Amino acid sequence: MKKASMSDKKAIVLSSGGIDSTTAMAIARAEGYALYSLTCNYGQRHASELEAAGRVANYFAVEKHLVIDMDLRAIGGSALTDNIDVPKNRRHDAILSGIPVTYVPARNTIFLSYALAWAEALQAPDIFIGVNAVDYSGYPDCRPEFIAAYERLANLAVKAAVEGQLVMKIRVPLIAMTKAKIIRTGISLGVDYSMTHSCYDPPEAGTACGLCDSCHLRRKGFREAGVPDPTHYAI
Q1: Of 1, 15, 18, 13, nearest to 231 (Cα)?
Q2: Which of 136, 153, 196, 228 is most buried as measured by Cβ atoms within 10 A of its Cβ?
């Protein structure tokens, strides 16, 4: 995919290589932004997402794909960063109730802070993040009230905003969409979801377990969207 022509209109896109962040990137591209992709290598169990984020960055021919290394394993407290089993085979109603052990403490706060720093350095006031508060695992840092609060913080925190040079915007185009609608939106924008990765506990490179919450939501989304699921599930 060729780069956007409006290179003076810049956006940071937080990219995990999954369905949501990839669709958010497609929306940013459709709106004419030059894309700066930011991926965090935080010691996550599902490191396959780093490869997927690289594929997505190449697909969209981003201006730059930045991978930030950090060690959230030192903090732990999550099945994605600690010696805690990833929940499997949970019913849909159970997934939508409560906050599961796959929640990573303060993850989106940390990720957005890195994005905010890069956005100020690039003079790029728009930060896209693919958070969703409909078909999701109940993470508190995916809720609209969190995003609104962070945007207020962003405009108090950085020199460019305080001096009136930029008004920082946290863009969340998917926040009220079902997973099926997200997938249909991406398909309409030409996204090839075979390059994405969602599984929390992949058994081997290029596959998905088929049993974790994320695999469940991905399968359900493709089924309800009426779109073939290109994922290779182990089960």
Answers
A1: 18
A2: 196
